[in-house]
Amino acid sequence: MPASPEAANTLDSGALQAWSTRVLMGFGVAEEPAALTAGLLVRTSLRGIDTHGISRLPGYVDKLTSGEVNAHAMPRIDADMGAAGAAAGWLRCDGDGGLGQVVASFALEQAMARARQQPLVACHIRATGHLAALAVYVAAAAEQGFFAFLCQRTPPVMALPCASGPVIGNNPLAFALPLAGRAPLVFDMANSVVARGHVAQAVREGQDIIPPEWALGPDGQPTTDPVLALQGAMQPIAGHKGLGLAMLVECLAASMGGITSAPNAAGGTAGSAANASAFALVINPALATGREAFDASVSAWMQTYLQAGGTGARYPGQRQAECELQRRRDGVPLPAGLLAELRALGERTGHPLPVLTPAAWPAGGTGAA
To answer: Which residue(s) pair with 124 in the sheet?
Structure first.
């Protein structure tokens, strides 16, 4: 996915990550978790998921400032599960209200560590901030040889037409699996027609119209006005089927943890919960099936899929992998509205945003706005 030709500004990904790390540290986050969070946000942008990448940084800063997100969080695995729970492959992670990138990375690392000794490990995650794009977490697991599934419960943002308001989260889910000799297959989706971030992006970039199938206004009817859409609800994919998938996430990310309260999104966008819950599943194909048998099976059905699709066929995640390579070379495009927000954030923190394109970068240095 190449950078859009109308993008007037691009920023070197390394400079963007270093700057984002400094910004987060300025709001109380220690260097290691700040660098981890910045790295995942930047990688999300590198993979072309612009609505959930570095564009989320200003909102995260707001939640750190308000105290909704704990800058000093120490995620942990609950010890009261005992040996039986661990042996059965069931973990519970308490995120201590921290940044979602820190909490989810910790939970998946713990799950993968155990999945090196047993075929399957599941982990319920509670008290976590917004995870942004789930793709980067499961992709990282697949790059280490695991199948991974991850879903997050969000505040209610979705409803069918004529509803009096949002009834359930768009509850995104993602999975990834390793492909021998190729970039991993990575599938990531929200259960709304589009992620709510697309509507927020339309408002930020001054777009007047969105497609009518995206969202409902406060009156419960489809709207093309992005401002009214943010006041209403997102529409689910395929009607009741999208609601059913959102309920699956409620089962895994809420009920399996005994959670009855709704995620808190006060003071921010409804899709960016400050106290959310999630569910992760990690399977080690080498122990579950045998690596050779697993690779042979995946190769067989993938070959059928690609051959049937013709010369332009792609599998999920392939375009993102290509985009990541291209943007690491050419820089991350920043639309005008986002660039203004990031510049303002830089001025607020005393860390001016670098804005030079990679081609104009001074040797060994970074430009500043």
So the answer is: 92, 279
Give the CA count within 13 Å in the CB-facing half-sphere of 362. 6
Per-residue pLDDT at 177 exceeds 60: yes
Domain boundaries along the sequence of the chain: 10-192+236-360
Report yes or no: 150 and 279 within 8 Å, Cβ to Cβ.
yes
- Angle (CA) 127 130 135, round 5°: 120
The alpha carbon dihedral of 307, 44, 276, 212 has a sign of negative
**What distance in Å separates the CA atoms of residue 309 and residue 65, rounded to the nearest whole number?**
49
Q: Are 62 and 56 in contact (CB under 8 A)?
A: no
Strands, E, within 69-134: which ranges? 76-77, 90-98, 120-128
Strand partners, 77: 93
Structure tokens given for 20: 């984002």
CATH topology of domain 10-192+236-360: Ribosomal Protein S8; Chain: A, domain 1 (3.30.1370)
pLDDT for 95-118, tens place per residue?
Answer: 999 999 999 999 999 999 999 999
Whole-number Å distance between alpha carbons of 1 and 148: 24
- Residue 234 near residue 222 (C-beta atoms within 8 A): no
Higher per-residue pLDDT: 369 or 88: 88
C-alpha distances (whole Å) from 323 to each of 2, 43, 276, 317, 318 are 6, 10, 30, 10, 9
Give yes or no for a contact between 277 and 152, defined as CB atoms under 8 angstroms apart.
yes
d(CA 171, CA 155): 8
Q: Which pLDDT band, with edges at 50, 70 and 90, does 364 fall under?
A: very low
| Residue-wise DSSP of 147-162 | EEEEEEE--S-B--TT
pTM: 0.88
- Residue 191 gets the label, from left (phi > 0), alpha (psi -120 to 50) or beta, of alpha
- Quote the tokens at residue 200: 């927020």
DSSP 3-state of 216: strand
Mean pLDDT of 283-307: 96
Strand partners, 294: none
Which residues touch 279 (CB under 8 Å, ≥6 apart)? 122, 123, 124, 125, 150, 151, 249, 252, 253, 256
